[in-house]
Amino acid sequence: MQDQQIDAMAKLLKSMSHPIRLKILCLLQDKELSVGEIRAQVKTTNANISQHLNILRGQGIIDFRKDANFIYNRISDRRILELIKKMHTLFCPSM
Amino acid sequence: MQDQQIDAMAKLLKSMSHPIRLKILCLLQDKELSVGEIRAQVKTTNANISQHLNILRGQGIIDFRKDANFIYNRISDRRILELIKKMHTLFCPSM
DNA sequence: GTTGTATTTCATCTTTTAATGTAATAGTTG
DNA sequence: CAACTATTACATTAAAAGATGAAATACAAC
Questions:
Q1: Which end of chain A has fewer surrounding CB within 10 Å, N or C?
Q2: How many A×B Cβ pairs under 8 Å?
């Protein structure tokens, strides 16, 4: 890996390395969810979730679509899914 | 994944998500290196590298042995190696 | 034991990140 | 259009992380 790639990768990991954001990514593994549905499982404020979602969007990790006044989020980068799956098998083998 | 595991995983990712620390881990993928050897490739101060190494040690990611007045560092958790390898194939396929 | 090299510790400063509360926007329904 | 819901933007504050330089430790060699 070259420095440039390492920097990019570090930035990506950093965006995943907050408990709330990692949990959001786990929740979005197999389905899309609205902000409200996420908040129901994450236990923080709406505004806070919105900010975390923005960080993930900025990294191009998640995407969203609008429907009525709901915004449905989903993971847009297949590689992230694979990475999460790998972390799961490596670090939580029994689940 | 449960919240407890997510928190642990986020902490682990966080410790890997700094450019210098990620680079150190990449350098240590296939060999052990002293602090000086690492510094030669990372371009920051000795003290700074020492601090980053401490963070990685605190996470149990790397281990070290002493020889004379050199300290040789190596990755102690096989899972980290696998994770780095996976990131490599996913995000830097052409290298 | 003094000199020299390698590494770490410590204190400080700066920067970044995260949380919180409030106001704003966008869309829906009656 | 008024009332309501979902989401975001903004401003502020609090907390954590990172960099830096100087001093301290550890070991080796002369």
A1: C
A2: 86
Kindly give the pairing relationship between strand A62-67 and strand B62-67: unpaired
CB contact under 8 A, B22 and A16: no
CB of A68 closer than 8 Å to CB of A80: no
Nucleotide nearest to A47 (CA to C1'): D8
Domain span at A23 = 3-91
Instruction: Residue A65: name the closest of A27, A40, A23, A33 by CA.
Output: A33
pLDDT tens for residues A3-27?
999 999 999 999 999 999 999 999 9
Q: Who contacts A5 (Cβ-Cβ below 8 Å, separation ≥6)?
A: B91, B92, B95
Which protein residue's Cα is closest to nucleotide D18 at C1'?
B48
Each residue's pLDDT tens digit in chain B (95 positions)?
Answer: 789 999 999 999 999 999 999 999 999 999 999 999 999 999 999 999 999 999 999 999 999 999 999 999 999 999 999 999 999 999 998 86
Contact criterion met (CB < 8 Å) for B14 and A12? no
Domain of A44: which CATH number? 1.10.10.10
Instruction: List CB contacts of B4: < 8 A, sequence separation 6 or more.
Output: none
